[in-house]
Amino acid sequence: MVVEGGVVAVVLVREYDADKDRTAVEEVENKCEVGPSGELSLYTDLLGDPICRVRNSPAYLMLVAEMVVLGGGGDEERREIVGMIRGCIKTATCGTKLSRNGKNCTVKPKTPQLQPVPLPIYTKLAYILGLRVSPSHRRMGIGLKLVRRMEEWFRENGAEYSYMATENDNQASVKLFTQKCGYSKFRTPSILVQPVFAHRLRLDKRFTIIKLGHADAETLYRRRFSSTEFFPRDIDAVLNNKLNLGTFLAVMKGSYDADTWPGADEFLASQPESWAVLSVWNSKDVFRLEVRGASRLRKALAKTTRMLDRAVPWLHLPSAPEVFRPFGFHFLYGLGGEGPNAVKMIKALCGLAHNLAMERGCGVVATEVASREPLRLGIPHWKSLSCAEDLWCIKRLGENYSDRSVGDWTKSPPGLSIFVDPREF
């Protein structure tokens, strides 16, 4: 509550109402920068749907902070949306436990002796994103109030942990969550971004790429990656979502093709020495991004590279993407693989994803991987467009856990890989 000159201003936090709040929320979004402050700023066009970035999650909520100004006589003078926050809840892998029960083996061993198999331990996990406070109303405790109210909803719905992602150099956000909200720094994955050129990329002819059906993709992910940190238990809902453009498997040429593909069960029972997989999510139909604040010279140079690339595509010039007006992108998720050629296969799969994005008019292709991910060596990206160290912060919401054998997840060491849910990117 703010009192000045007999005028009282009260900030109310309530659920977002699409019918009456959409325009005001869009105005706040347009005023807010996403990313570190500086010459260039990244803006988000939500395509008229402020809930779009959480709408595909199993459970979600959007809250708004509304400032109500009262006159000296207590009469209401005006209302103004000054902030918002979005949150969602899912069940995801937070750790593993070993089982010697042969029935639980994800892959049949080559020897009669059964080996311990890591089985996933799931937890109900909440995620905070899209916290915005109007620049004219910052440093008034509005962001803290929004976070606390969202956490109340998380607890009411049984969430055991809450996490959020921010840029490592976004000091205002980091201080709010770590110093005032009780979060701790947890993981530092990398966001890798590759521009979409005006020419198609050549794919390595040593490999065959097969598009998997939803059932085979689910089988492969559950049996090979369900013990990966942050793996969503409802992976079937992700794979069957209309925004999922497909799951693609790379193998050595001559081993399998679309006609001889035996199905995921048989593939896993006698898997080849090397293989790799990834899925493609169509973020272009959810929201668009735009880089603002670029100089005329920078825009002109970027435009020149694109013109040359279109004029002489056979030269395969690395043209800069059109990021100075709203652009869409495809997100690559579920990256994984095994064997000595897995890195090269991931590179081929990324090339396929690039060509798909080019056909669909995207500006960039993006993915996010753990800082120690072995396969990241095969992911093409531009350093100038990427974020080497994103920051995830986490908080334990309660003392009751679905499986106490995991202990306190917030204190666990990072693994080699994480599973980034495309619904939360």
Automatic annotation (TrEMBL):
<dbReference type="InterPro" id="IPR016181">
    <property type="entry name" value="Acyl_CoA_acyltransferase"/>
</dbReference>
<keyword id="KW-0012">Acyltransferase</keyword>
<dbReference type="Pfam" id="PF00583">
    <property type="entry name" value="Acetyltransf_1"/>
</dbReference>
<dbReference type="InterPro" id="IPR052810">
    <property type="entry name" value="Plant_NAT"/>
</dbReference>
<feature type="domain" description="N-acetyltransferase">
    <location>
        <begin position="11"/>
        <end position="204"/>
    </location>
</feature>
<dbReference type="GO" id="GO:0016747">
    <property type="term" value="F:acyltransferase activity, transferring groups other than amino-acyl groups"/>
</dbReference>
<dbReference type="InterPro" id="IPR000182">
    <property type="entry name" value="GNAT_dom"/>
</dbReference>
<comment type="similarity">
    <text>Belongs to the acetyltransferase family.</text>
</comment>
<keyword id="KW-0808">Transferase</keyword>
<protein>
    <submittedName>
        <fullName>Probable N-acetyltransferase HLS1</fullName>
    </submittedName>
</protein>
